[in-house]
Structures are given as C-alpha cells and as structure tokens.
Amino acid sequence: MTGIEDELRAALHADADRIRQDGLRPPATFPATRSPGSRRRLTTLVTVAAAAATALVVLGVHLLMSPPARDATPLTVTFTSRTSNVAPTKATITLPVPEVHGTNMKTDQRVSKAIRQQLTEEADVFRNRITSVPGTETRGLSAKVTVGETVTWGHYLSVRFDTSADTGDEHPVNESDVLTFDTRTGAAITLGDMFTDLDKVGDTVRAAMLASRPAGTFHDWHDLETVTLNPSEAGITKPPSCYPTPAGLRCRIDQGQLTPFDYGWIDATVPWKHLTHVLRPGVHG
C-alpha cells in the first residue's frame, strides 16, 4: 500500500470524524452580572445596532428593486440518433446527433461544432479499424456511440460518449471519450485548463481507483503506473476520460485496457476536497 493511498484513506476517515464532530455544539454559557458602566455601554451598543438594522432594511429594499444579476448563459444539449453505412464496407455505425439549446448563437455553434467533430473522429477510428481487417468488406460489423452522461458543475457542461464496436476481434471495443465546455463561452475545456498540476491530480486519481477497485481488479499500485492524465505523454494506455461533476472529478478507464475484459469499465470519483489545492483560480462549482 502506497503513501498516497494511505493519505487518501486517512483523509477520508478524518473527514468522517470531522463531520461527526461538527454536529456537536458547546453548551450555552450565562452572561456575567453587569455593572452600571456596562449598562451605559450596552445602551450605546443597542443604539448603534438599531441604526445598522435600519441601514440593512434600506439596503434590502434597494436590492429587491434592483434587477437580478445575470447568470451564466443556460446551455443544454439533447441528442437523437442516426445509423449510416461505413463505405466501402457493409459495416454500419450509429451516432448521436446533437442539438444545442442556449441563448447565444455563437456559443451554441461552438459547442455543436466541437461535438460533431468528436463524433466524426469516432467514426473515422471505427472505419480505420475495420478496413485494416481482412474480409471486413463482406461482414456486417457495427459500432454504436451513445451518450453515457451529461452533467453540469458550475458553469461547466460535460458530455461523455460511450462507444461499443464490433471490429472482428474476440471482444468488442468499449471506450469512452468526454467533452467539457464552458457554458459562458462554449469553449472546450481540458484538464490542464482546470488544474495547475496534472501529475498531482493523476496521483490522486490513481489512488482513488485503487481504493474503489472491485475485488481482484488491481493487485497493487504498479497495475496503474501507466495511467496518466497528460495526453502528451506516450504511454501504454490512453488517458482516462475525466470530467467535473458535483460530487468530484469522475474518471473512467476503458474496458479491457488495464484489466480483463470481464471487469468492465473502471470508474472512480475524487471528491473536490482532495483537489482544491491544485484547482486554478476561478474554477469552482
């Protein structure tokens, strides 16, 4: 067991103890007997408090009469699906078709364009895989991309795409990819935009995956050594799909990438309290 895993689990136990302790309050104490001088000071304090209360009432009326502050542009995405042939083979692919709902045309267009580009890349990957396998021109292979989750955290909207593809191998390909957007601008957001140190975030994510593993999934820390959040690093595994959720940073490793296929996807969510020290200024829910 590594120091990082020890620290993560110790922090979780400490937080649980802190929550239990926060439910307790010290007993009320009674005020000491006041002298005449104390009464005069009390009268002065009461007068000051009354004036402050009047000011607060005036401020409250002003706030009620003032127009409310404008929130971030509301933005949602819905999907339908469409199946098409993958020329020149007999394979088919089913893709979600996005429809962006917002109040700013430029923002909506940026989000729609990024999603469609991602789905086009998914189709290209499937086409390249099956055209490299002999005999696929006469076989009915297929792929389906579905929307696994859409989630909002603060002014961030994330869409996770899950791909299942029959490429002629023993097991189908089950992969996930995610896009995260700033709903105020429609700009695509990377983990590097959210965190100051991806190496530290990666350490915490690996510890969370090790701690939440199904029985027998990972033997020890070394099984996760190749997992990196930095897409520029040439590693054995592709970076997990990570995105912000209200509960924390959720990360998913593709099925069969590190473990036997029967184990399925490996998921872990790191609570934000373990990541606040590496969040960039302005990144919050």
From TrEMBL:
Q: Which residues cross the membrane?
A: 42-65
Annotated region described as Disordered, given as residue ranges: 18-37
What are the entry keywords? Membrane, Transmembrane, Transmembrane helix
This protein's source sits in the domain of life called Bacteria
Under which name does UniProt file this protein? DUF3298 domain-containing protein
Organism name: Streptomyces coacervatus
